[in-house]
Specification:
The protein has 183 residues and is an alpha/beta fold. It has one domain: 3-Layer(aba) Sandwich (Rossmann fold), CATH 3.40.50. Helices cover 21% and strands 42% of the residues. It is built from four helices and eleven strands. The strands form three sheets. It has a five-stranded parallel β-sheet, with helices on both faces. A four-stranded antiparallel β-sheet has the order 1-2-3-11, covered by helices on one side. A two-stranded antiparallel ribbon has the order 6-7. The relative contact order is 0.18.
Length: 183
């Protein structure tokens, strides 16, 4: 990944941020949204997204790392339990569900894990899948597979931003769309 000094401005509620634009593949650049440590953005995004949480949702699923604060804030706002989907299996995690995905930010295969202790929160439940940015849909596809294997159902999907063609993400509640730059 390389940074060329450009920024892309986004607005979430009253918050404006300039996102750095990085090349992620030859001739393909994206604006990197990183909400870690930006409490104002996390709280604002969670407050806005909480208005679109499906009434039938029983649990929130969020992949680590950047979506964790958003998932936490949505859990607080809605009272729904939160399951963190891990990208590294820790020794204390037993009876895990797992699936493999490829992330646009790493370009490498990653395994997603739901700890066995969290399976009761998804079995027979309706899960709201939450992410910071939906770029390729790979992480959401992995989350869907985990929910299915765990005996749950999808209540809805949401993100702060989708990326690329907005028409590709019609079923996802999002606060905005980030362009893909090809120059």
């Amino acid at each position: 990944m390389s940074y060329d000094g450009r920024h892309h401005r986004v607005t979430i509620g009253e918050c404006e941020r300039d996102l750095p634009v990085f090349e992620v593949a030859p001739g393909v650049k994206i604006a990197i949204f990183n909400m870690l440590g930006d409490t104002e953005i996390v709280e604002t995004a969670a407050a806005m997204l909480s208005q679109d949480v499906p009434e039938n949702a029983d649990v929130i699923l969020a992949p680590e790392v950047k979506a964790v604060p958003l998932g936490h804030a949505l859990s607080v706002a809605t009272g729904l339990p939160l399951v963190i989907v891990r990208k590294i299996r820790k020794p204390y995690m037993v009876n895990c569900l797992e699936t493999e995905v490829v992330s646009i930010t790493t370009g490498q295969p990653q395994t997603l894990f739901i700890d066995g202790k969290d399976l009761a929160l998804i079995r027979g439940k309706r899960a709201l899948l939450v992410d910071d940015v939906v770029s390729t849909g790979s992480t959401l596809k992995g989350l869907r597979a985990l929910i299915e294997r765990g005996g749950g159902h999808i209540a809805g999907e949401m993100a702060v931003f989708t990326e690329g063609d907005p028409g590709a993400w019609e079923g996802i509640a999002a606060l905005g769309n980030l362009p893909i730059f090809t120059d």
